[in-house]
Amino acid sequence: MTQPHPTDPAAHVATETGEAIRRAVDAGFPGTVADLAALVRIPSVSWPAFDAGHVAQSAEVVAELLRGTGVFEVVEVRRAMVVGGSELGQPAVVAHRPARGNRPTVLLYAHHDVQPPGRDEDWETPPFEPTQRGDRLHGRGAADDKAGVMAHIGAIRALSEAAGDFDLGIAVFIEGEEEWASQSFGNFLAENRELLEADAIIVADSGNWDLETPAITVALRGAVAFNLRVATLTHASHSGMYGGAAPDAMLAAIRLLDSLWNEDGSVAVDGLRSAGLETPDYDEAQLRAEAGLLDGVSPIGNGPILSRIWSQPSITVTGIDAPDVANASNTLVPGVRVRISARVAPGQDVIEAFEAIRAHLEAHAPFGAHLTFEEPDTGQAFLVDTSGWAVEETRVAMTEAWGKAPVEVGVGGSIPFIAELVAEFPNAQILVTGVEDPDSRAHSPNESLHLGVFKRALLSEALFLARLDARTLG
Asked: How far apart are CA 386 and CA 390, in angstroms?
């Protein structure tokens, strides 16, 4: 790793401002955690079935927190039309201060909406009542991604306190519908381009290697999700009278879905490709602990475990519409609808991947079952260019904050809007960071944030901002 030369501005930052940043982070951290807890109490689920008023409330609270930093000329809650639709998307927060003295501008992204909580009985404490147990703050959105919001705000507060009236340009975009496919994202970027344009972009929506080691996310799989209806009968019939002769839709669906995987659980769809990324060591024991495999349950797939997660395709059935057990009568089911979610390796176009899956399903439909496909939700995969100055500045800041150099990681999940950021701001350097750790359980019951990881991530970003404030462009 390249270290700053003693006469560099970066070295000046490290020696004269770094300790002031640390003191400011230490002093402000209790208040930052309290502000995070207040945000977690707002059930800002962006899905259509939930109260949109909570998302609006969350946006207003975030806007007030940004105004409270005292560093921005503009802080507003704005909305854009859903791409290809006729309704407005969920409210997002934008803020901006211009750069001075030929300093760069950095765009800070996070999202204030959250996943649905699921069943209350699956939570050890209420999902929207933030609860600290040991070093972890539990609650829906505590990690994903309201901690990302507060990492940005805490870093800005620390920089302002340590450096006073700094010259760095900062734009902020706190989205309100990331958990609902970012449906107005493209229009929002286009409408607010002048306000959001930057030299570097930090997307604070990922994780770290472990509790003691930071990470920079350099690869993201793409995503394809769609609904499939499998139909075999015009109406339900008595299973005793016709079972064994008439194929029911559940039988056809089970047979069809099973064809998607090989015996070892790897994907069996021709046309889905792998990326062949290099991966660090990660053994089965670590997978078992982090993913929660039950005793006796084996991993699936082949090759290095992280390769299966970072650079190979995967397919998951995430939902089935069919009679539930409580209402199961002795009938042959005429139709079944399933939700199929696929992850696509970096380097493959997601529409190409969808067409490969569609062709496979059509070729393997048993008993002549009729298949109906709904339009897919898609998000392109992404590979980060790690050669730029922004990544190097991040490496140095993370090493200083954590006392350990960051690991470059891939992520099995997807952040589809990053491809849209690249398209809108092709000259910006993209950094994907985050506040999560392997036990954060984002999207799952008992989501939590490790406060030690949160503090180090916040400090890393504050040091990064200070380094950019000492950097001139050109």
From this structure: 8
- Across 322-364, the runs of DSSP E, i.e. the strands, are 331-332, 335-344
**Is 376:229 a contact under the CB 8 Å cutoff?**
no
What's the pLDDT tens digit per position in 42-72?
Answer: 999 999 999 999 999 999 999 999 999 999 9
Catalytic residues: 113, 178
Give the model confidence (pLDDT) of 104-122 as tens digits. Answer: 999 999 999 999 999 999 9
pLDDT at 311 over 90: yes
Could you tell me which residues are beta bridge partners of residue 78?
92
In 3-state terms, what secondary structure has residue 120?
Answer: helix
Same domain, 370 and 429: no
Collect all residues with Cβ–Cβ distance below 8 Å to 223 and sequence separation of at least 6: 341, 342, 343, 344, 350, 377, 378, 379, 413, 414, 416
Q: Are 259 and 243 in contact (CB under 8 A)?
A: no
DSSP assigned state of 334: -
Residue 384's pLDDT is 85
CA pair distance 233, 250, nearest whole angstrom: 11
Type of residue numbered 435:
V
Q: What residues make up the domain containing 329?
A: 223-275+312-379
Domain boundary among 328, 345, 379: 379
CB crowding 404-433: b at 16 or more within 10 Å, else e:
eebbbbbbebbbbbbbbbbebbeebbbbbb
Contact 12, 31 (CB under 8 A): no
The one-character DSSP state at 203 is E
**Model-level pTM?**
0.84
Single out the residue in 339, 354, 379 at which a domain terminates. Answer: 379
Kindly tell me if the per-residue pLDDT of 253 is higher than 60.
Answer: yes
User: Quick one: tokens of 78?
Assistant: 């704005």
